[in-house]
ATP synthase delta chain, chloroplastic (Microthlaspi erraticum), 228 residues
Amino acid sequence: MASSLQQTLIPHRPKLSLSLLASGRSTFPFSVQFPRRGGELRLRMSSSVSGIYATALADAAKANDTLESTCDDVEKLEKMFLDPNILKLFVNPTVELWKKREVIDLIAESLSLLPYTANFLNVLIDSNRIDLVNEIIKEFELVYNKVTQTELAVVKSVVKLDSQHLAQIAKHLQKLTGAKNVRIRTVIDPSLIAGFTIRFGSSGSKLIDMSVKKQLEDITAHQLQLSG
């Protein structure tokens, strides 16, 4: 794929009238070639368009020794794109290109994104691939986990767990999986009643359930067996 992350010179344009949007332009000091066969990381990742874009971003981050910071950026974008209205704006063909770039400028500033992370969004806009952004985010996570030998775990609990508990969970998972690193994503789930669950492994295929909800379900199932 011959596209590259590079600075695009934009001619003078009228200011966006919406007060929520920024008027400044970001600058992007380097370009990145999109890989044809997995890029410098040489991973057996998805051959889909989303996988190619995700690997390109990871290649850029790795080359500039900012893989961790880029991963943080991607997590910020993942949370932001949970709002479907943001993506609707970007894919709307009636919204002018310069207005979309203004929105990206605002996003980059408000989320403190790295310059090439912001430029990556511009590339997706220019190539009409912004509709794939959520898929690209997921693919990037796979690339990152592969490169850094990281196990991703989603921990659900009724209340927010403190850093000490999360550190203990990470240490336990590290021993259990043999992973070099463990990243924990926390989710609040009132339906658990108390306790917590840990989902990890490929596509979240493994589950450790320490919730009261699970205990109650087990008790109910046991009682049904006895009554049967």
